[in-house]
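The following record pairs a protein chain with its ligand, L-homoserine.
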Amino acid sequence: MAEKIVKVGLVGAGTIGKGVVDLYLRNGSAINNKVDFAVMMAKVADRDRDRLQGLDLEKEKLCTDASEILEDPDIDIVIELIGGIEPARSLIARAIENGKYVVTANKDLMARHGQELIRLARRNKVNIFYEASVGGGIPLIRPLKHSLVADRVSRVLGIVNGTTNYIFTRMDQDGLSLEDALSEAQRLGFAESDPTNDVEGLDAAYKLVIMANLAFGKKADFDQVHIEGIKGVTYEDISYAREIGYSVKLLAIGEDLPEGLALRVHPALVPLEHPLSSVLNELNAVFIESEAAKELMFYGPGAGAMPTAAAILSDVVEAARCIRFNVANGVVESELQETGFVPIGALEARFYLRYLVEDRAGVFASLANAFADEEVSLDMVIQKRRVGDLAEVVLVTHEAREDAFRRALEKVTDISAIKANPSIIRLLN
Ligand code: HSE
């Protein structure tokens, strides 16, 4: 039997696309030796000719129209790297309907429409792989889908956004303001020129939905994720947090509770002795708690052309194996279970608060009373003199239901001696 050559078409030759081509050119023959068959980068499409010209591939492999890949019966696998919902969604659907396997790094799409695309792939006896959609070069999708399938995962804690982790690290280590740390991140290429999705927590929320689907086998809904970005965190908060033994991280947290899934993205105080505290700069990590394996951590580069390209090419090899050995759609995810969701108000947490108050008799007592009224008990109280007759008060509560805590906050707002809205950060429990 003649050896099957598995042919790959790539759509989208931006930074990651170029990384995939470069890594393929560097490691292609080593990959072929490892898997004992040939994977060929047959065509690359991008509307932008300049991007195509930056690739070290023969001219006849380059095209500006993705249809040349989607409609080519010789192409077995399509790599989608254009990002966003449309036209990526239609393009992937067309590839699947034409019997092609799909590899994508598209987190927005997999979080919002992943289940419909997986279903379409299943019906067409192919598969869709998306290892690079979460955590860039960190193997995460495959461990969740394969290695942990027999375990019962109870909680997923992720630092899955490199931009915000870089910003918090610079604020902590160099005393920078959030704005200065963000500018530095942009200058060094760790943040996009429009960092909205990163700074506001949306990027982390997309990744959380993808991880929660796989970790819990239940249908996580992006619209049910409670999302808070990093804008409310100041250098002072990070500095006080360290004083009391915590670092500040933007966490994506998914929990499988008896009442349903609890999904949230927000800054959190993480104990310095927790492994996630030592994840610095633009690096990512996901900490998984499960019944059998107990605690696992996956750590590494969450973005960047080469780490992401390695994840994408590993998916290409997995798809190629299915084709080469005729295993139809191999391990394709089954339907996810429908589930309820636990609103943030019903969750319990400890809260850090920092207030600027007038430094006079009775102010602290009224603050403490507002919390006592809602049975929110205080665990730590720090008062520091600031300027003139203003003082800074840092409080840490004991565990309290979030809705009771919010009622207490409303009462505190009525106290005239309180000068500014507080910083509020939940503690990781
Ligand atoms: N912008 C993302 C981050 C990388 O900062 O982690 C891609 O998801």
